[in-house]
Amino acid sequence: MSPITAEGLSLQEAATLVGRTTKTLYRWMDKGLLSYLLSEAGRRLIDQSELLKVATRSTGARARSRDNNAIIIKMLIDLEGRLERQEALMIGLVELYQPGSIDALNRKRQLLR
């Protein structure tokens, strides 16, 4: 990497510094997340301190997203287990409750009211 100028980093220097592709940096600039200046030659120059802030926020967002996904997966697995237990309980209750006649069924229905 060439020395950092007072004007800013080239796109390639910036990408190398934060371990991202130039395509990612262009995307950040297009979304307004990362500002830049144009050199006399028309090349984009990026401020190092701003670049590091944006890259840190982006890394944190990806980590939070992975954490949230893990939490959601755990919740889904827990819910699936609870549903399986409730299904087994309901099947057991249906098997347990088998009236001998329609009159017995009507009596039980009236008791539930």
Can you describe this structure?
This protein has helices spanning 11-18, 22-30, 48-96, 102-112, and strands at residues 37-38, 44-45. The chain is mainly α and 113 residues long. The chain has one domain: Multidrug-efflux Transporter Regulator, Chain: A, Domain 2, CATH 1.10.1660. It has a two-stranded antiparallel sheet. The chain is rod-shaped.
Amino- and carboxy-terminal Cα gap: 81 Å
What's the architecture, going by CATH?
Orthogonal Bundle
How many domain modules?
A: 1
Q: Per DSSP, what share of the residues sits in E-state strands of 2 or more residues?
A: under 5%
Average pLDDT reading: 83
CATH class label: Mainly Alpha
Number of helices: 4
Q: Can you give the helix content as a percent range?
A: 55-70%
Shape: rod-shaped
State the CATH topology: Multidrug-efflux Transporter Regulator, Chain: A, Domain 2
* Derived structural class: mainly alpha
Oligomer kind: single chain
Name the features:
113 residues; mainly alpha; Multidrug-efflux Transporter Regulator, Chain: A, Domain 2; two-stranded antiparallel sheet; 2 strands; 68% helix; HTH_17; DNA-bd_dom_put_sf; Helix-turn-helix domain-containing protein
